[in-house]
Amino acid sequence: MGLFDRVSRVVRSNLNAAVSSAEDPEKILDQAIIDMQEDLVQLRQAVATAIASQKRVQQQYMQAQSEADNWQRRAQLALQKGDENLAREALNRKKVQAETATALKTQFDQQSATVDTLKRNLIALEGKISEAKTKKDMLKARAQAAKANEQLQRTVGNLGTSTAMSAFERMEEKVMQMEARSQAAAELAGADLESQFAQLEAGGDVDAELAAMKAQLLGGSAADQAQLPSETAAPKDASVDAELEALKRQLDQL
């Protein structure tokens, strides 16, 4: 392979890659419709030109045929009048017009076939353009959706490395640290209060226990005093009472 061929292939491949990357489906679709419309206009003009030529050949054929018929009548008239030379001349003119008419008829038939083909192609192209117009909007919508999805995926993919996302994540971490410090400070403050109240509650328990013991002691003494008469009391006996009275009198006499 020569150097020129290799360079040519590289250049063409680069050009094709550049053209492919520069192609916008929406713009290309619009341009394709415009190009097809231009082709349709040109085909219509070609059909109109072919029809006009067909009409002109038809008129020329009909005129040549009419001239041939006219010379035929003149030849008959000259022969009836006994002028064979004039009749022969008329027949020569008739022959020329008849040959012309035959050639024109062949050309007319050919042009009629060409016009029919052009008309069929015109109808087919009109149908394709109508179908292309219908598909164009659908393809443009699909292209827009594909581009939007591609942009979304690219944006999502870049979120992890973008400066804005990094800043957002740093601020989120900072807020979490601030919340942790605030919670720790609150727990420490709550721990001091709890310890103070615990001390107060501990002292209160001692006082309450001391008061309970005092109340128990006081209650026990009162109970003992209340129980003494009942415990020392004995059933009354007449002899005992008499002896007690005698003892009292002896003591009074002393």
Helix content: over 70%
End-to-end distance? 168 Å
Shape: rod-shaped
Question: Which ranges are low-confidence, i.e. pLDDT below 50, for 5 or more consecutive residues?
Answer: 230-234
- What fraction of residues sit in β-strands? under 5%
Radius of gyration equals 66 Å
Number of helices: 5
Taken in chain order, the helices and strands follow as: HHHHH
Can you offer a commentary on this structure?
Helix content is about 95%, strand content about 0%. It is mainly α. The chain has two domains: about 20-160; about 165-220. This is PspA/IM30 family protein. InterPro entries: PspA_VIPP1 (IPR007157).
Brief descriptors of the model:
254 residues, mainly alpha, 5 helices
Write the layout of secondary structure elements.
Blueprint: H1 3-22, H2 25-80, H3 84-159, H4 163-232, H5 238-253
Describe this structure in a few short sentences:
Helices cover 94% and strands 0% of the residues.
